[in-house]
Amino acid sequence: MTPIMLELLIRSLWETILMTVASGVISLVAGLPLGLALVVTARGGIAENLWINRGLGAVINGFRSVPFIILLVALIPLTRLIVGTALGTWAAIVPLAIAATPYYARIAEVSLREVDRGLIDAVRAMGGNRWTIIREVLVPEALPGIVAGFTVTLVTLIGASAMAGAIGAGGLGDLAIRYGYQRFETDVMITVVVVLIVLVCGIQWIGDRLVAKLDHK
Fold it and tell me: How many helices (H) does the chain have, and how many strands (E)?
C-alpha cells in the first residue's frame, strides 16, 4: 500500500470512528430515556399510561421499520437544516443517530423489563417515588444489559456508517467503494474489510469487559 493510500486509510478510519462514536452517544442519550418511558408507562408500570406507551411505541417502530438507506435519503432536508450540507462525515451523523436511537431504545427496554419486580415493590414499600425507583433500581440493575445493548448498537453503527460512505459520507465505506470497487484495487478492499473486523472485535471486547465488571449477579 502506497503512503498516500495509507494516509487515506487512516483518515477514513478516523471518519468512521467519529461517525460511530458521535451517533452512538446521541443514541444513548436519547434512546435510554425512550426505553425508560416505554417501561414505566407500560401496563403495570410505575407510571402506567397506555396512550403514551402505544403512541411512543408506534413512533419508534415506524422509524425502525424504514431501511437505513431510505432513511438516509429521506432525511436529507433535515440534515441540510442541521449541518448545512447533505454530504460528508458530519452530515452522516444525523441519519445515523436518528436510525440508532429507536433501535437502542428497544434494546434498553428489554434490559429494563428484566429488572426484578420485587426490588421495585420493595422501594415502593419504603416510600420511594418514581424517580427514586428509576435512579436506584431500574437503571443500576439493568446496567449490564444497557451496556451490552450499547455495544451492539455501536457495532451496528459501524456497518451503517460504511453504507453511508457509499453515498458520500466518507469513512471506510467510501474508501472501499471509490478505490477498492470502482478502481479495482483489491488490496484496498481487503484492507478495509480487515480494519472493519478489527474495529468491531475491539468494540465488542471492550463492551464485554465492561459488562463483566458491572454484572454483580
Answer: 10, 0
In the 8-state DSSP scheme, what is residue 183?
A: T
Q: How far apart are CA 32 and CA 61, in angstroms?
A: 16
Model pLDDT for residues 23-68, shown as the tens digit of each residue: 999 999 999 999 999 999 998 888 889 999 999 999 999 988 888 8
- Taking the CA atoms of the chain, what radius of gyration do you get in angstroms? 20
Q: Write the CB contacts of 114 (distance below 8 Å, at least 6 apart in sequence).
A: 142, 145
Q: Which domain holds residue 154?
A: 3-214
- Count of domains in the chain? 1
Angle at 110 between CA 108 and CA 113, to 5 degrees: 105
In the block, cell 453511508 appears at 164
Q: How far apart are the first and last CA of the chain?
A: 49
Instruction: CATH number of the domain at 196, please.
Output: 1.10.3720.10
Give the pTM: 0.88
| Grid coordinates of 35 | 426505553
Render 87-109 in DSSP notation, one character per residue. SSHHHHHHHHHHHHHHHHHHHHH
